[in-house]
Amino acid sequence: MAIVPLIPATGVAVLKKIVLLALPGVAPFEFGVICEVFGIDRSDMGGPSFDFTIATAIPGPVRTSLGFDMIIQSGLDVAADADLIAVPAHSVDPADFGPIDERYLEVIRAAEARGAWVLSVCSGAFALAQAGILEGRRATTHWMHAEQLAARYPGSTVDADVLYVEDRKVVTSAGTAAGIDAALHIVRKELGASVANVVARRMVVPPQRDGGQAQYIQSPLSDDCADSFAEVAEWMLQHLGEDLPVEQLARKALMSPRTFARRFRADMGTTPAAWLNRQRIIRAQQLLEQTELSLEMVAADTGFGAAAVMRHHFVKVLQVTPTAYRRAFCEKVPA
After folding, report:
1. Paired strand residues for 71
2. Alpha-carbon dihedral of residues 197, 200, 206, 210, nearest 10 degrees?
3. Residue that wins the pLDDT comparison between 1 and 164
4. In terms of Cα–Cα distance, which of 160, 16, 5, 30 is closest to 84?
């Protein structure tokens, strides 16, 4: 059965047009992350096909942070009705490529004002901050730039310890891979978990990393230890419907509960309970989209136990009830 991106219950498809801003000094890898998530037609696998455009203030050559030019054909006028404006990493030193052109900042402000999504990857957060839309919002960036961002823009609460932050449709992310996580978060929130999984599967990346996970690991684990956690994590995914106390997980990993909890957080960037809860939510999203199981059955199958408990976690994490989520994203199967 094909996975079809659905129009939410409002009757309006809210994520169609994506515009990626190519600023002077743009970082090629982070630029490519946005292109990979939003710029590829995946309708052959039941995934999304976005109206994707790359835009710059002056169409023509745009110098990258690595010294080569990209030829960008579209001007910023194409961004006027975009559902998502994406800003990749770029040089944060004005001495390198000069100050950010005011025209980019106007595009960012206009997108935020009309309620469109705004996404930054890594140091792209500096453009959002200069545009003023991070004022009064939580934000993040690459941990190397976090202190500088907080000092320059004290009106924003900068969290250097997370992969990405969403605050009222403004999403800022840490470096490189975290940009993929943030982009998939938007796809998942607008089009559902199944659609996000199609994109992630084509990119061969995990679709389930949560924004609250840590950006980096202070002391990398040995290969043996990392393999142990990979095996335990896979086992946890296969037994989501069961009660999985830390003591049981620690036995699977051949560790004491205290050592397991400490090393799991170091390796996975979050606590075992938080990681498990997020996987249960994602699995529940898939069941709500793809099956007609009752809420009680979905809750039982995913380890929440009762529909009321599942509802609590959905509202806390997704800001929507399971019933409303199913109404928006359940699949329509042709007769």
Report:
1. 61
2. -70
3. 164
4. 16
Helix axes 272-290, 193-203, angle to 10 degrees: 110
Quick one: pLDDT band at residue 102, thresholds 50, 70, 90?
A: very high
In whole angstroms, how far apart are CA 202 and each of 35, 218, 265? 13, 30, 28
Burial class (CB in 10 A: 0-12, 13-18, 19+), 331: middle
CA–CA gap between residue 44 and residue 57 (Å, rounded): 34
pLDDT in tens, 5-15: 333 433 344 79
DSSP string, 221-276: PPHHHHHHHHHHHHHHHHTTTS---HHHHHHHTTS-HHHHHHHHHHHHSS-HHHHH
CA distance 309 to 35: 38
Do β-strands 69-72 and 60-63 pair in parallel, antiparallel, or remain unpaired? antiparallel
Dihedral sign of CA atoms 107, 165, 216, 94 in order: positive
Return the structure tokens found at 2. Answer: 């094909």
The yes-or-no verdict on residue 140 having pLDDT over 80 is yes
Q: What is the Cα–Cα distance from 326 to 321, expressed in whole angstroms?
A: 9
Q: What angle do CA 243, 163, 271 make, to 5 degrees?
A: 25
Percentages of the chain per state (helix, strand, coil), in multiples of 5: 50, 15, 40
User: What is the pTM (predicted TM-score) of this model?
Assistant: 0.73
The answer to whether 184 touches 207, Cβ cutoff 8 Å, is yes
Contact 76, 109 (CB under 8 A): no
The dihedral through the CA atoms of 179, 282, 169, 317 has a sign that is: negative
